[in-house]
Amino acid sequence: MEATIMITQAPARAATPAPARSRWFALVVLCAGMLMIILDQTIVTVALPAIQQELGFTTADLAWVVNAYVIPFGGLLLLAGRLGDLLGRKSVFVTGLIVFTTASVLCGLATTPELLIAARFVQGIGGAITSAVVLGMIVPMFPEPRERARAIGIYAFVGSAGATIGFFAGGLLTEALSWHWIFFVNAPIGVVAAALAIRIFPAERGLGLAAGADALGALLVTAGLMLGVYTIVATGSHGWGSVHTLGFGGASIALLVAFVVRQATARSPLLPLRVFRSRNVSGANVVQALMVAGLLGWQFLNTLYLQQVLGYSPVEAGLAVVPVALAIGTLSLGFSARLNTRFGPRRVLIAGLVLITVGVALVSRVPLDADYLTDLLPGIVIFGTGGGLALPAVTTLAMSDATDADAGLVSGLANTTQSIGSALGLAILATVAAARTAALSPAAIPTPQSLTSGYRAAFAVSVALLLTALTVAATVPHPTHPTRPAHPTRPARPS
User: Fold this and answer.
1) Contact 118/81 with Cβ under 8 angstroms?
2) DSSP per residue over 416-468, as a string?
3) What residues of the chain score a pLDDT lower than 50?
4) What is the tens place of the pLDDT at every residue in 152-205?
5) 2: exposed, middle or buried (C-beta count within 10 Å: 0-12, 13-18, 19+)?
6) Of 248, 254, 257, 258, which Cα lies nearest the Cα of 227?
7) Options 1.10.540.10, 3.40.720.10, 1.20.1250.20, 1.25.10.10; which CATH number does 20-213+268-475 get?
8) How far apart are CA 289 and CA 286, in angstroms?
């Protein structure tokens, strides 16, 4: 069979604790660091009103508490993942934890809007460096297919359930203590995770900068991605058809096209284009971008619907979506590995996407005075069940053809598509909801009726994104059984 990812250099030595107990403990450390990153992406949302009141943010500037984190996070994931292959994933992971933890403390100590935004930008850099290499460390750590499927299921649970828990934790910390603690809580977790990572992961040597030190390529892709994420998150202020959006969006596309051309001609490319020859890698990344766009965008707006229309408090809104985390956890931790091993990740992904789509479609019909148990909970549970199937499966597919030399890169690529999908989905759904609400509120004062109609319209777009993801999942990836990979990696020839 044809190999899709070729190793042209000696593979990096994986930071893999040999005994089984050590491997699972190491996974706990990696997931603890990842959970801290994931929580931070949602925990801030419910604290924004308190931050605005205390620090004196204007309404327009308040969005930059989120955007200042999202832009460097989405822009640096690909570069950070490749640096993990070149410099060693352990050192990159620990460095990211230190940067993220330090920036979190600075966020909590901020006394002005400018200081908080600057600290959030640094926090986004640390988050990207940390999370970009986690999957690249997990894959070589668990070479046996069943163990790997289980490990990826745990990773997927941490990523998806962590986002849900963030809404609840943000409200709880803000109400019980203050918004400062949504950042201070990262300090002990980050310090312990970094100390344990230094202790349990053996020293490793990466491929070396000579194997992919493409400075021009790094500059092009980082600038292109950061500019693209900025363009997406700024659409709420400027609109999709504005000169600002079209100009910056065009510049982002031009930079990314130049990056692709550079990778096709460079002697040591940052992102070898051979990676995309794998239908599993390419298909899974497209599916992930579309799925996350529909999934996280819906989850965010559903939380706003609970508060703005049904009058839930931040803590109550967080508790309302806890069944999502429970359903995802039950499947990701208990059944997804066995299902992926028995039926193959592609079939499990398709089944999960069907359930997610059905769940969102059910909630999209919410009435103005929705009852939680009858109108919302059934769709939320079905949504969470689908997430518990789809998220581990798409991650398994995205990493299925990764080698030791490319694992960090493929991990960074998967995280990049997830980040861009999240930003794009939220921007699109928020725009649709706002436009529909504004059309029904001529006095520019949203009513419960206009807000509900706006959320319904956004949820319909979420369904469309998920159906598109389902179509790609059914047609692009190979129907590969995880114990019999369709694309065996050809070993490197000794020099």
Assistant:
1) no
2) HHHHHHHHHHHHHHHHHHHHHHHHH-TTS---HHHHHHHHHHHHHHHHHHHHH
3) 1-17, 482-495
4) 778 877 877 676 677 677 767 777 788 888 888 888 888 998 899 888 887 777
5) exposed
6) 248
7) 1.20.1250.20
8) 5
